[in-house]
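Task 17 of the worksheet. Students: predict the tertiary structure of the chain below and write it out as structure tokens. Keep your answer in the requested format; marks are given for formatting as well as content.
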Amino acid sequence: MGSTSSGRPTGARDRDDEGRARNARPRDGLGRPLPYGAEGVARQPEGVLRTPERSVVEAQELLDAGKPFHAHEVFEDAWKSGPEEERGLWRGLAQLAVGLTHAARGNVTGGARLLRRGAGAVEEWASRGGRARPYGMDLGGLAAWARQLAGEVERGDTAVDARARAPRLRP
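Model answer:
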């Protein structure tokens, strides 16, 4: 077996400590893979157990830093580790963050679709007996933000700057 210029064996798969396939390529601030050996942004650790309040704070910090892909990872951890009755909330928030990610990457169709899907998910969660302001978040305001941004993305009004267009999770 040959090797790449980065020293990685050709055809070898990246693996985590448990042997699961994981892409170890560095990533940029929007989660796009960079070439091996390039300097990337530190990845968000996966599988971290946080309180819901901590998840909101960390996700907002990442959104404010222009890293919605990383915020999506925080929401995904909450979705996968949280109580069953809150999974729809966290999944919807993850969709909003990844929708912003795709919009900032220039993926018009995917960005708009995920922003609208996330808006619908958080509204549905709130209407099914959830709360309109769980952990201080304004779900109605987030849904409105997402739909407005989806429309702007589809119209091609402007390139999306993830940092400048980051939502406020808590008013």
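Marker's comment: The chain has a mean pLDDT of 87. Helices lie at 52-64, 68-81, 87-105, 108-127, 139-155.
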